[in-house]
Amino acid sequence: MQFVRIGVDITDVSPAEEFIPLAKELGLTAFVNLMKTNVLETEDVVDPVRQCVSYGADSVYLVDSAGSYLPFEVSELFHVVSDTVDVPLGFHGHDNLGLANANALAAASSGAHYIDATLDGIGRGAGNTSTEGFATVLHRQGAPTAPDYQRLAHLSESTIRVVPRLHDDRIYQVVGGLTRTHSSLFPLITRCAEAEGVDVFSLMAAVAEVDRVHPTEKLVAATASALAAS
Fold this sequence. Notes:
Elements: E1 3-9, H1 16-25, E2 29-35, H2 42-55, E3 59-63, H3 71-82, E4 89-92, H4 100-108, E5 112-115, H5 131-141, H6 149-158, H7 170-179, H8 186-196, H9 200-210, H10 217-229
Parallel strand pairs: 1-2, 2-3, 3-4, 4-5
C-alpha cells in the first residue's frame, strides 16, 4: 500500500491533523477525503481545504456525499478551490440524482487530478461514479489515456453485476440528493415521520431547510410535530 485515505467531516477537519503526520511517518501518501462537502456553499469549502493542506495533506478530495451537486456546481467548486491551493484535488461522487458520471467529468475538466469510481457504480447509498461508464465517457471525449472501457464493461458484467444488492431505497436517495441530506439520517427521519404520521420526504425537506449539516434528533422530532400540526 502506498497511500492512505483519511476521511473527515468537512465541518470539522481537525482530526486529520493527528493522522496525516502518522501516515507520512509510515512513508504513505496522505489523501484527505472531505466528507459532506456538499452541505457547504462553495466559498465555505476553501478554508477546510487550506486547513488540511496546512496539516501536510498531499491531496484533498471533495466528496459529494449526498449526490446533490449539479455539473455546473462541481465545475465552479473545483475552479474556486484549485485557485487557492497547490495540492492535487480529487472528486468522490454519489449517484443520487443520476449525475455521478457527469459530475466526475465536470470535476476532471475543472482542475481535479483524481476521480473515484467503482465497477457498476457499486457503493453506499445510490452508488458512485461507474468505472466502466466514466471510462466510456473519456473514450468518447477522445482522452488519450482513457482506460479500456470494453474490458472494464466485461469485468463489471462478469463480476459486480452478479453480486446481490442491498434493498433499493431509490426514492430516499433521490430526495436525499435534492435536499442534500446524508443517508445516515434516513432512519431517524423515517422514525420521526412515522411517529407523527407525516410524509417522510416532506419531513426530510423541512429538516434540511433548518439544518442540513448536523440536525439533532430533537430538531427532527420537533419539525415532525410541527408538520403534523400544520
